[in-house]
Every structure is written in structure tokens, then in C-alpha cells.
Amino acid sequence: MHSDQSLKKNTNRLTIYIIVAMILGILVGYLINTNASPEFIKNFSPKIKLLATIFLRMVQMIISPLVFATLVVGIAKLGDLKTVGRVGAKAMLWFISASLISLTLGLILVTITKPGVGVNISNADLEGAKDLMGKTKEFSLDKFVEHVFPRSVFEAMANNEILQLVIFSVFFGVALTAIGKKGENIINALDSLTHVILKMVGYVMKLAPIGVFGAMTGVISIKGLGILKTYAYYIGSFYLGLAVLWLILLLVGYLILKHRLFVLLKRLSSPMAIAFNTASSEAVFPKLVEEMERFGCNNKIVSFTLPLGYSFNLDGSMMYMTFSSMFIAQAYNITSITEHLGTQIAMLLVFMLTSKGIAGVPRASLVVVLATGSMFGIPPEGIGLVLAIDTFCDMGRSMTNVLGNALATAAVSKWEGALKM
């Protein structure tokens, strides 16, 4: 009891520190933007962002071993392939349904609000767009298969290719379950590894406020608050879409969890705050594993469902892909997209495929948009239009990704009768 109260106190304290760091970051960034010379700002912004880079890299260094260990142990603890298949089917049912809702909702709202109509395309960040172009190639079936199936588990771990790691972990976990008692020592070792990594999470999360301060100061110092005014309608339209998506997710969550939904939201306050302020849902994966188990979800379900969710269930990112691509099409007046429902539906389905395995890190959604947009005549340089304010949209979609995966894990636990009520 005392331990739970201590954990809750530490979580609340971390949330407060993160909010304070965000406010300080905005204030310091604004003061530098309005008072410092352009040359100083140009040098200062990348340097202060290093604080956020250090935090994100320390989180990323434990993502791969944690995903591997938790997923393999989760499959092994489920006991048999029939149970794995049943739980996996329930999780995928949620993931596919949520993805389709997110994509469709984004398409509907951006078509109604039309934030791209009349936008001055000379505001595009062409240099930033060129940087992103170097990170991606046009979508093809060959590239998609290479993206899904790893040629080396170590390469997948080194590059934090979560979907590839999930594929390997599923095979490894199924094989480990099949050999029975011979695999018990490996299961116990990986279970111990999970506890060690989660202990590391506690140490790393203490740096979250510093990372948040660096991220916010860096963005505001170089962009200024004026960039928010320029794109206010676009940002507002997107956050309206997220608000509607949240209402749908929370309504479904309440129908499944009843009053326990509010307990879950309290547990998620710290992970969602970190995701919002660092613009990275990947940054809170280790913390989310802890909070879902403390909420009452069976660790077997958490270990199996959450890693899958980070490959198949990034609801905020899914919405943003249709939203940003349609925004660019509207800005460039590409009528073959904006006036043809069939093309829009085809684009939605392609995003449904190409988004799987997308990393929960800043700008990953734009890489997918850039990789698939050319199929429908979206100019690559159009990415520059949304690049300037992508961080502010990324904050909202990252927080939504966390909520969506938490609800999915809680729902599957409830359906399996494995949720402590």
C-alpha cells in the first residue's frame, strides 16, 4: 500500500515537473526569439535541443530489448498457440477498427474544414523537405516487404524497427512455447531482463523535464510564437479532429471499462504529458508498460498487446497522415485528389498499409506521407508547408497514440477476463 502511494506521488510530481518545464521552455524560447540576434538563435536552437535528443536517445536505447523481452515473455506466458491466436485476433480487431476510424475521421474533417485552401505555398520549408526526401523512397511492394520482414534481428534492434522486431519476437515466442520445459530458463531470463529494463526506465524518466525544456525552448526560439498564428486554422482543425477521435475512443473505453476508465486516465497523466511535450509516443513506451500493469492489466496481456500496438495502432499518426496529405492537395489545388472520393479512399487504404511499423518518433508520419504521396500526385516539396509547425501537431498525435494503445490493452485485458477491477 505504501509502495503504491509512493509510486502515485512520484508520478504526480513528474507530471508537474514536466508542465513547469514546458512553460519555462516556452518563456525562454520566446525571450530568445524576440531579443537575440538571428545568428545567435541559429546556433542556440540546435544546441538546446540536444537536451531533448539526449532524453529521447536514452529512451530509444531500451525500446528494442524491452519490446523483445516483453513480447516473447508475453507469448510464452499465454501458454499455448490457441491463446496467442485468440488474444492476437482481439487485439488486431481493435487495431484495424481504430485505424480505419482515425483515417476516415481525418479525411472527413479536413474535407469539411479545408485548411489548405488559400494557403501561400511560398511559406513551404523547402530545405526541411529536402532533408526528409533523403530519408525515404517512393512506395513499392518490394520496399513494403523489406520494411515488414527483417533480414537481421540485430539490424532491426539497432534501427529501432519495431514492426520487424515484432515479427521476429512472435516467431521466437511461439517457438519457445512449443519446446515446453526446455525453454523455461530462457523465459525466466527474459522476464528478469524486463524487470531490469523497467528499473532503468525509472532512472531515465527523471530526465524527462530536462528533455521537455530543451525541446520547447529549441522550437519556440527559432520559430517564435508567430508561426502558430500563421497556421492557427490548420492546427486548430487538426486538434478538433483529435478531440472528436478522443470522444469516440473514450466513449468506447467507457462502454468496456465503465468507471475504471477514469482510473486509467489518471494513470496515463504522466505518460501522456511526456508524449505531448517530447512529441514522441515511443518515448513513453517503457513507462506505459509500468502504468498499465499498475492499473490492473495482466502482465501477459500487456507484454503481448502493447508492442503490437506500437506497430499497428498509432491512432493520432493515422489521422495526421490523411489530414496533412489532403491539406497539401488543397494548398496546391490538386483536384484529382480533392474532388474525387475514389482517389481519397484509395489513398486511405494505402496509408493503412504503409503506416504499419511507423516509429513513434517526431516526423515519422511525414516520412510515410512523403513515401506514398507521389502515388497520388502530391508534390514532395508540399511537405515543406506542414514541416514548420509539424512539432506542434506531433505533440497532439503522440499523446493520442498513447491513449489509443492504453485503451486497446485495457480492452483486450477485460475481454480476456484478465483485468483487476
Radius of gyration equals 21 Å
How many strands in all?
Answer: 0
How many alpha or pi helices?
A: 22
Low-confidence stretches: none
CATH architecture assignment name: Orthogonal Bundle
Backbone structural class: mainly alpha
- Give the domain tally: 1
Described by strand count, sense and barrel closure, the largest sheet is:
none
Give the CATH superfamily.
Answer: Sodium:dicarboxylate symporter
- CATH overall fold name: Proton glutamate symport protein
The CATH class: Mainly Alpha
Calculate the terminal CA-CA distance, rounded to whole Å: 17 Å
Q: What fraction of the residues are assigned to beta strands by DSSP?
A: under 5%
Mean pLDDT: 81
What overall geometry do the principal axes of the alpha carbons give?
Answer: globular
Describe the overall structure.
The protein is mostly helical and 421 residues long. The protein has a single domain (2-224, 231-415), classed as Sodium:dicarboxylate symporter (Proton glutamate symport protein, Orthogonal Bundle). Helix content is 79%, strand content 0%. It contains 22 helices and no strands. It has helices at residues 2-35, 38-48, 50-78, 81-113, 126-133, 141-148, 153-158, 162-178, 184-205, 208-223, 226-230, 232-257, 260-267, 269-278, 285-295, 299-312, 315-331, 335-338, 341-354, 364-373, 383-387, 390-415. Helix 3 (50-78) runs parallel beside helix 8, helix 4 packs parallel to helix 17 (315-331) and helix 16 (299-312) packs antiparallel against helix 22 (390-415). The longest helix is centred in the first third of the chain and has 34 residues, at 2-35. The model has no long low-confidence stretch (mean pLDDT 81).
